Amino acid sequence: MLDEKELILEARHVTRKFPASNHRTLVACNDVNLKFYKGKTLGLVGESGCGKSTFMRFLVSLDTPTEGEILFHGNDITKMKGAKLRDTRQHIQMVFQDPSGSFNPKMKIRDILCEPLLNFQRITKSEKDAVARKLLAQVDLPEDFADRYPHNMSGGQRQRIAIARAIALEPELIVMDEATCALDVSVQKTIIELVVKLQKEKNISIGFIAHDLGLIQSFAHQIAVMYLGNIVEVLPADDLHKNARHPYTQALMGAIFDIHMDFSKKIESIESEAPSPLDVPIGCPFQDRCTHCMEICRKERPLLMELETDHEVACHLFAQKGGAQ
Predict the structure, then answer these.
(1) pLDDT, tens digit, for every residue of 148-161?
(2) Angle of the 128-138 helix axis to the 155-167 helix axis, nearest 10
(3) Angle at 307 between CA 301 and CA 250, to 5 degrees
(4) Half-sphere exposure of 232 (CA within 13 A, CB side)
(5) How far apart are CA 117 and CA 93, in angstroms?
């Protein structure tokens, strides 16, 4: 059970609101509650624009929630400033979707890898070459890549460099924002294998953002499903196929194409498009696309309720039926 593991970071009632035109408000994250455990991967999945990246940016202090708190070892990082915030940042690192956008194209790989270590005075300039070669070896790249520039490398190689830079400071948590979506499927597989290997070696916690439910299910320990800024279900990844309960999660599962799937069954799609984040209906945000919509769904937003250990769902179906099925 995940509850028996060490909790390192917890988001409590995190909400992010942005002002919009005509005096409207866009709620990117709505009362989000999530937990990250030592050495475990939490996969955050959902359609584009659902608020996944907005939430994960809070963890690395690239943005601040409008409401709520994010506790890292019991300390609220949203309230940190100055030296304390800077010190905390070295323990939570991020790998972006496009690594090239976070690299200085004029810097050699050696300098890119060692810049965080120099910033925190972990190494001296004379140690750069040896440290860079060690980091390259850890992500299965040749040591002589230290003399290359980012544009001399493939997309998969640049993503390995981004991972090497993220682990350089020996962080406790790494946030990966769609870190494989721009790569070929075969390259995706090798990157995921590398991430899993490093996690086991270093006992790192990972928050992984993805559109691909099938991909994240293959290596995550826990999955949180997000819809229009709301967490609608959280459950162990191993239980996804047999225990997914929320209609949205089930719809995502039904749309997965897999070589081991039952080809006699029709691949389902979710009817209609998600409403605008500026026009989320009162009640359940999924109501207009749900075949189980009831009268209460149009009046009250369902809150996460525990169905069983480590499994929560926000759906009136289960409140009406008295919990787990």
Answers:
(1) 999 999 989 999 99
(2) 120
(3) 70
(4) 30
(5) 13
Domains of the chain: 2-91+169-321 (3.40.50.300), 103-164 (no CATH)
Question: For residues 180 and 195, is the Cβ–Cβ distance under 8 A?
Answer: no
- 202's CB contacts (< 8 A; 6+ apart) are 167, 170
Contact 225, 313 (CB under 8 A): no
Neighbouring residues of 72: CB distance < 8 A, sequence distance ≥ 6? 8, 9, 88, 91, 92, 173
User: Position of tokens 């409207």?
Assistant: 24
At 212, which amino acid appears? D
What CA–CA distances, in Å, run from 7 to 145, 203, 238, 312? 37, 13, 20, 17
d(CA 310, CA 158): 36
Buried b (16+ CB within 10 A) or exposed e, 180-212: bebbeeebbebbbebbeebbeeeebbbbbbbeb
Q: What is the pTM of this model?
A: 0.90
Hey, what are 45's tokens?
């999945």
**pLDDT per residue over 233-256, tens digit each?**
999 999 998 899 999 999 888 766
Q: Distance between CA atoms of 1 and 212, rounded to whole angstroms?
A: 25
